[in-house]
Design a protein that fits this description.
binds NADP nicotinamide-adenine-dinucleotide phosphate; 2 domains; elongated; Tumour Suppressor Smad4; Rossmann fold; about 260 residues
């Protein structure tokens, strides 16, 4: 019997979701789990909803590395949600055998102007909030690599590679590779501004630094997964792999590549 017993359910406060969560709570209790209402007492956190709900559950519970996260969707399974509300017993059985079926997803750490860091499971994006380009000096470790001018950039984790990153033609990265991918959003290329023009993937040993050139045209908005950060006049973003992993319960025979195939092919 595993040591994890205290389960917290996270979901939208709408009648449909509240009804589902009520059913789950009864079933979980019958299966020997303790349902907790205070998330600090939880060692299992179950999000009820889509990938959006899962990302929100992680953020609202501060990227806990001492908890097992479980994603349950109401209809179709997603990238973070392996289980569906149609058969909650599959999820409860998997929770009892967590040793065998747990994924560890890398996260990235974003430090803005030397403040306290933020974490992302999908990506950090920085983009112009006005109909004007802005300029970023891009550093890889201490190397001034390129000067970007355009709409913005996306720095994604391997699991985030199937989301925003994919929409700008970034590569899909196996989450077993601890890495981060840097992708451009509409770069302007001319004799003055030259960028690589393709996405690139950095190892977990590297730090990416984005320095926003303060020329009066800079109005960036920063996205951390599905949340926007309203920080005005951000000058420097330092981004690296955090070393913190999110442990996620997986269904048997449902690898990352099964999901990619199911969703896109
Ligand atoms: P949204 O705009 O309502 O939905 C974005 C879609 O992406 C939803 O279908 C969502 O699934 C799906 N999604 C989330 N994480 C994913 C992942 N790792 N792999 C594949 N698909 C994923 O925004 P949201 O639901 O709040 O999700 C936030 C994410 O949206 C951001 O982290 C970013 O990756 C993505 N996004 C994409 C674009 C773009 O492609 N142009 C622009 C902005 C943001 P569910 O329906 O299950 O929630
Ligand atoms: Mn959504």
């Amino acid at each position: 019997m595993p040591h994890r017993k205290n389960i917290f359910f996270y979901g939208k406060h709408t009648p449909v979701y509240e009804e589902k969560i009520k059913e789950f709570k009864v079933l979980a209790t019958q299966q020997g789990f303790t349902v907790v209402e205070d998330v600090s007492e939880a060692n299992i956190i179950a999000s009820v909803g889509g990938d959006n709900a899962f990302l929100q559950a992680i953020r609202k519970t501060n990227f806990r590395d001492d908890c097992l996260y479980v994603g349950v969707s109401i209809d179709d399974v997603g990238f973070y949600t392996d289980f569906t509300a149609q058969d909650p017993m599959i999820m409860l059985e998997a929770m009892k055998n967590e040793e065998v079926e747990v994924r560890r997803y890398p996260t990235i750490e974003v430090t803005i102007d030397e403040d306290k860091p933020f974490y992302c499971l999908n990506e950090c994006s920085i983009r112009s909030n006005v109909i004007k380009t802005f300029v970023i000096d891009v550093y890889i470790d201490d190397l001034q690599f390129e000067t970007f001018r355009g709409d913005g950039m996306i720095i994604s984790t391997p699991t985030g590679s199937t989301a925003y990153n994919k929409s700008v033609q970034g590569a899909i990265v196996d989450p077993l590779l601890p890495s981060m991918q840097v992708s451009e959003i509409a770069s302007l290329n001319n004799n003055q501004y030259r960028t690589l023009g393709t996405s690139f993937i950095l190892s977990g040993e590297r730090t990416l630094s984005l320095q926003v050139v303060q020329d009066g045209n800079d109005h960036p908005i920063i996205g951390l997964d599905n949340e926007a950060l309203s920080i005005r006049h951000s000058k420097e973003l330092k981004i690296k792999l955090s070393g913190k992993h999110i442990k996620v319960l997986k269904l048997k025979n449902n690898s990352f590549w099964h999901k990619v195939q199911r969703k896109f092919l």
